[in-house]
Automatic annotation (TrEMBL), chains A, B:
Protein name per its UniProtKB record: Peptidase
């Protein structure tokens, strides 16, 4: 499994992904799931991937080939982020169909993959889109300034509580790491190293950070969050007054 | 959808369930999902239900009929909680099979339901079990002193952080409500009123509370939790020091 989240705020974009892949619990590997593509000063794209590893690798390879070969359709030629998401969805769909044709030897097997693509093309603002396994895509809204793929539920509540369009990149980045921490704690198949990418609006430069399992900041964040949550819980109004039982 | 959680600690048992059922988003109703059965002074059972409403209602009806008719197998006659869970699973399995036989008119449709059953039989300690749609069941462990059915992921992280065998019933009850709050916030199909049941060990008496949507305690809990979480987040070590960008 995988967990990836991308956030858009007025200040820019934040991307966060884990690096664990598994086929059953005994075949666990580490693969980054964050890919960066750029035309310096012109366009920046980050792609996050989840799902079948063979599919996601094949899709990323095709995206790279199209760039290298100056293909008519590539991340260099797409007029906007929505078209780039359609292009990515089309490649993903083709790659899945190649292996999972309904009358072929793999009929019934699933090679599904999901992607988040985000970035900025000059003269447009930064944007995000999530590409479904079916190839279509959705974007963020003012009320939901983030997108998730993979094991998304454990880490969703904190995003809902913290993020707005006005959130700074520092807070959005921290929120993504906390969301990742909640997910890792509850699901063994999501794990470090954690990749974090921060893209300030109009910068046309991505800052990438990688947090290993023993990274000092990640450990202090995890420890503080656990401690702060317990304290936050302790300060809630006690239930005891509501009941007739002596609950202590 | 539904969210139910049950907790076992050294001090007793806690049960919590929402009351929303839906078949599509336009057919939403309120049904309690917590059922209490007792032989005063002898045995106490609480059943929480999730899944197909027709199945869960039919199962609960059968459990009641068996009690009323003094059937050879009923919650009155089960020697221990594990047998009671098997009995419940058997009824559930039969009820599902009746409607979903593979060559009948409903072939392919799902009538699945899950249950948590908990309680105490005299001379045994309080116990919990979760009954899968397939009819088999699991119980808690020292490290995982809770069971969930329904929409369980949003509310899991707080349970993992707070609950141990030594947790008081007050804290376990509050933790169940906070877990419910996170779930309601992220999933529209889980909603109030919220039923809370608290069973102190060896008491052979269940205290039941119902929190309506405008309940003062529930509202103050929700508001405090949101506020405390934001403060807990604000006190985390800032990410800014980790990066070379000016993120504020």
């Amino acid at each position: 499994m995988t967990y990836c989240v991308a956030i858009t705020t007025d200040a820019g974009l934040v991307f966060c992904s884990d690096s664990r892949t598994n086929a059953g619990v005994d075949q666990v590997s580490t693969y980054g799931k964050m890919y960066h593509f750029q035309v310096p000063g012109e366009r920046q794209f980050v792609i996050l991937s989840a799902g079948n590893l063979a599919t996601t690798q094949a899709v990323i390879s095709q995206v790279k080939r199209d760039l290298r070969d100056n293909a008519p359709n590539s991340l260099k030629t797409m007029p906007d982020l929505s078209e780039a998401a359609s292009y990515l969805g089309e490649i993903s769909r083709q790659e899945q169909d190649r292996h999972a044709s309904p009358d072929g030897p793999n009929a019934g097997a699933s090679f599904e993959a999901s992607f988040i693509i985000g970035g900025q093309i000059r003269d447009d603002k930064p944007r995000l889109a999530m590409v479904y396994p079916q190839g279509n895509h959705i974007t963020t809204s003012k009320d939901t300034p983030y997108l998730q793929i993979g094991e998304s539920k454990y880490g969703k509540p904190i995003l809902d509580r913290i993020l707005t369009a006005a959130t700074s990149l520092e807070i959005a980045g921290r929120c993504a790491l906390v969301s990742m921490d909640s997910t890792m704690r509850s699901n063994l198949t999501v794990g470090p190293p954690i990749d974090l990418g921060i893209y300030p609006v109009d910068s046309f430069a991505l800052e990438r950070m990688r947090f290993e399992e023993d990274d000092e900041y990640l450990r202090s964040l995890t420890r503080s969050w656990n401690q702060n949550l317990i304290e936050a819980f302790d300060r809630l109004p006690p239930l005891a007054a509501e009941t007739e039982l002596d609950l202590e």
